[in-house]
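Intended use. Records like the one below are meant for learning the mapping from a protein sequence to its folded structure. Do not use them to infer anything beyond what is encoded.
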Amino acid sequence: ARRVCAGRVRRRRSASAHWHRGRHRRAGRAPPPTPPRRFAGWSNPSPRPPRA
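Structure written out for the chain above:
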């Protein structure tokens, strides 16, 4: 556990925080990994069918 942004990480432990963690290492190698299923709400609130 590297204490780089310890001040901020200590309080907000969000999905995006973990999601962006390893992005700078292999940038441009592949699309960002899909966040864990339990955090699916941060990106798509509710997968509802198209309006028709």
